[in-house]
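New here. Your pick:
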Amino acid sequence: MDEPLTEHLLEELLSSNDPATFADAHATSKRSLSDYLNQLLDEKGARRADVINKAGMNSTYGYQIFVGQRNPSRNKVLQIAFALSCSLRETNRLLKASDHSPLYPKDRRDAIIIFCIDRGRTLMQVNAELYRFGEDIIE
């Protein structure tokens, strides 16, 4: 599902006569992590069990994240993002849906993670880079 760019939405909001009309037209409610994860599974043609396994998670805990029974840590969300081969935009949306801060390029650890996402690296490869730079790995 292609989402409109933030800039376009901002322009439309500012040119709107009232915010309620804009909100109704764009269903501005917060998307749940579970909903977005399942959307990504569909879009990428991935299976939940394969993603959980690739993320290196306990299957019960991973399943609970996917059905919305657990609120994962930021690292767990990043593990899932790498297992799904998410883009930077998709990763930041996952982080936002889980009430965590997006990746921030001025943070050294986040910058390494962003670089690895951009280069299509695996979770194992990003952890090797983080370790090499003396940063906490994603576990």
